[in-house]
Amino acid sequence: MLKKDSYLTGILLAIPLPAAAFVLATYVLQDTMLISNKPALPYLAAIALNLIMMRLFSANGMVKTVKGIFIATFLITIALFILKLRLKT
Fold first, then answer.
1. Exposed (0-12), middle (13-18) or buried (19+): which is 45, by Cβ within 10 Å?
2. How far apart are CA 42 and CA 61, in angstroms?
3. Which end of the chain is more exposed for a tag (fewer CB within 10 A), N or C?
4. Worst-scoring range by mean pLDDT, 5-14, 25-34, 55-64?
């Protein structure tokens, strides 16, 4: 595990999973039956993995890193929600 406890570490750790889910949902799995009825599934999986990561860092007492992961996850979730709303209209 990482030893540095900082907000920036948490933010940098939280970004790759939602970004990969966005690329996966937008470009790779766009027309497949796997997510055609459940378009939020990759994003929910990424959020769940970030929550697991938050739990692991919380158990090690890295409060700032957990807060950084939470902030990044929250902002990415809101950004994806707004992006999906704008794409539908």
1. middle
2. 29
3. C
4. 25-34
Instruction: Give the global pTM.
Output: 0.78
Residue-level pLDDT at 20: 84
Question: Is 63 within the bounds of a domain?
Answer: yes
Confidence band for 44, pLDDT divided at 50, 70 and 90: confident
Q: How many other CB atoms are there within 10 angstroms of residue 88's CB atom? A: 6
The domain in which residue 63 lies consists of 19-27+37-88
In a domain? residue 2: no
Q: How many CA atoms lie within 13 A of 83 on its CB side?
A: 10
- Say if 79 falls within a structural domain: yes
Task: Please give the tally of structural domains in the chain.
Answer: 1
